[in-house]
Amino acid sequence: PMAMALQDMEEPTTQSMGIRWYLDNVMNRIPRLAVCFHRNGTIQGCRVINTEDIPVELAPNPGTSTDAAGRASSGLLFSPELLERNGRTILRFLHDHCRADSGTYCLYKESKDAEVRLYDLSAMTKGRDERQWKYQLAMICYRYGTQSASFVTARSRRTQRTLLLHAARLLTEVASAGGAQHPTIVADAHSRVADLLIA
Prior knowledge:
Elements: E1 2-8, H1 15-27, E2 32-39, E3 42-50, H2 54-57, H3 80-97, E4 105-108, E5 117-120, H4 130-145, H5 154-176, H6 183-198
């Protein structure tokens, strides 16, 4: 298996792009990434990179790049070790603080702030604003569920089906509660689920 990413030849590869591609591959156990370079939508060429080499191969200026904390890191777009350490810290934090079953939380960090904040949104999702929160959660599920390049293993395709079905269910609940109907999105979610079941 191989993931694919599109990169505009006129734009530099940013640290956040590299981290996103790297994490997508690591979490889905994809060994390689094909970066297809385009100019005005026309593919100019491709480059296949092993997942573990993404931080090195995509570094713009070896010796002058920065890691995830903004420190100079010789020849790396980002530090995989620091990324993993930060990920473990965040997961531990979420495990310790997200206690409610089926709770709704928002993890937030300002770009220039070192502190991560966790907001419990469960109380806000009850009552008159419930439709809005359900709609927003449905759209998040739909958005992630339609990023098919991230779902290549059987396990990740099950996750994709779950996200799409959850989006369709939430949008149906919003419509049943007197909110706006979104039949095109619901139909598309069900169509994608059907395609996944056939594949």
